Amino acid sequence: MIKAIINGKPVEVKEGTSILEASRLVNVKIPTLCKHEDLEASGGCGLCIVKIKGNNKMLRACTTEITEGMEITTHDPEIVKTRRTVLELIMSNHPKDCLICARNQDCELQKLCSEFGIREDFFPNIVDTRKHKFDDTTKTIVIDSSKCILCGRCVQVCQKQQNVWALSFLQRGINTQLSPAGEIELNDSPCVKCGQCSNHCPVGAIVEKDDSTTVWKALMDPEKVCVAQIAPAVRVAIGEAFGYPIGSNLTGKLVSALYELGFKAVFDTNTGADMTIMEEASEFKHRFTSGGTLPLITSCCPAWVDFLEKYHCDMLDNFSTAKSPHEFIGVLAKTYYAQKHNIDPKKIFMVSIMPCTAKKYEINRSDDMFSSGLQDVDASLTTRELARMIKQLGVDFKKIEEKKGDDILADYSGAATIFGATGGVMEAALRTAHYLITGKDAANVEFKKVRGLKGIKEATIDINGTQIRVAVAHGLGNVDHLMNQVKQAKAEGKEPPYHFIEVMACEGGCVGGGGQPYGVTNELRKQRAKGLYTEDAHMQVRMSHHNPAVKQVYKEFIGEPLGPKAHKLFHNKYKCRKCYTK
């Protein structure tokens, strides 16, 4: 432990702790734009400068470690003046179009300029938007490099956390620009549309493509029957936009708000999650008991699907062919639901409310996303987009009454709701796989070894004397290690190291998705996940195969899992995708 003094207050911290981290322990806030909890310190913005007794230089708190006896001053008139000058320099190379920026009132730079009382341009504005890249080619992520403040967060999260390497800085000095390498378009780069760049950007340089105008237009069209579905991670994050404690489960209020917006029916993606488990667990049982290709790898995350098709396409046979849960609901809305309510499927406009930017890409990914004969999901909105729409509606979200979802496509099990947290898909699948393999439910349905924020989680599950080896990875930077283990075992003719693997592109799983409220940290991920696990623990039905709604849909419409109709509507194919390599 190291003892030091910060603004006259004694502090004791572990060796290796930065001044920035230590200051937070004594309730001292040092401003910063480049440092994020998820990422390594770079000292890029220069806002976190502090004074050290005996040193005539101002040092950057994020990259300077505490040493024994260090006496630190974090705030005084000279430091404040220097920080203000840094902000004024940043603003001299930044557009002043805050009113029409997607991050207006939710921008870290804007907030700091307000706190420092910057009301006029001290330096001449040198930004030339004509020289900067505006890239919306992916139709999911939009880059406006004229707004980039060169903090490096997006580049670091893309390269080091996600191991995708789609973003980089080009040129030098005043001409430095954010861009895919080689100045190619983002859609031609290795980008997998996970949205973590937008989630970590402190300003409006990278945002999700806003599809809310398309949805408003559909809601105003009297010829359309607009229906919506809510993903599990959305319900425990939407409250952050309205002042609720982190992790509050607001399913009932969300349903009510969607009806207020004008949707004719509100479904739950969790119902699709239960059906995904019926297909995926059945697929696992078939492969495990019949000598099929193992390990089986889950396929719910579209960014992971894109990553696998680009970088591990020699493992496509290992991928579960089951679609993601919201595609299940999309196709059922335009077939089963339309038939039961005598609605022309062509009039149904299905909107998915997702924690994810990659879902915007997924709804047009291949012909398999049109298995109803129409586009199964017409639009996908992020949690952030929906929050803005609710605010435009003019209702007090806190006072709105709770309602239940519509029809049979809104009933779900506890297994479905934990889909939103890393390890949740695996745990839900194991609950049902145990039943399908043994004919009995597991005595304990909680497989806690696959929970938590460790990058790679491994466990051996005993199912009636048979040992099943599973692994869970979240954050694409953790994936190659698992894939290489599998490939090496295959090359050496050995048994695969795992039977079942779950991968989620975003750290924490969907609760930390690229479309969730800004400012995500591990503490937020934990609290959001806790909201899902708490709901699961209090539900009467905790396994997908016991969901009465699922049983009814299979009995009345689908037949059996992995049957002909299930394959036609619920499953998809994969292909190798070309891209510029890392």
- State the end-to-end distance: 41 Å
Spatial strand arrangement across the major sheet: 2-1-5-3-4
Oligomer status: single chain
Largest beta sheet, briefly?
5 strands, mixed
Q: CATH-wise, what's the superfamily of the largest domain?
A: Fe-only Hydrogenase (Larger Subunit), Chain L, domain 3
How many beta strands in the DSSP annotation? 18
* Overall outline: globular
Annotation field: number of helices: 19
Report on the architecture of this protein.
This protein has a five-stranded mixed sheet with strand order 2-1-5-3-4, sandwiched between helices. The chain has 582 residues and is α/β, with parallel strands linked by helices. It is globular and about 75 Å long. The model has no long low-confidence stretch (mean pLDDT 95). The protein has three domains: 2-75, Ubiquitin-like (UB roll); 91-208, 2-Layer Sandwich (Alpha-Beta Plaits), CATH 3.30.70.20; 223-570, Fe-only Hydrogenase (Larger Subunit), Chain L, domain 3. Helices cover 34% and strands 14% of the residues. Helix 9 crosses helix 11 and helix 9 packs across helix 15.
Lay out the secondary structure.
Layout (H helix, E strand, L loop, with lengths): L1 E5 L2 E5 L5 H7 L23 E4 L5 E3 L10 E3 L3 H16 L15 H8 L18 E2 L5 E4 L8 H9 L6 E3 L6 E3 L16 H5 L5 E3 L3 H8 L5 E6 L1 H4 L15 H11 L3 E4 H22 L5 E2 L4 H10 L13 H16 L7 E7 L3 H5 L16 E4 H11 L20 H4 L6 H15 L17 E8 L2 E9 L4 H13 L8 E5 L17 H16 L10 H11 L5 H7 L12
Parallel strand pairs: 1-5, 11-12, 11-14, 13-18, 14-15, 17-18
Antiparallel strand pairs: 1-2, 3-4, 3-5, 6-7, 7-10, 8-9, 16-17
Helix pairs in contact: 9-11, 9-15
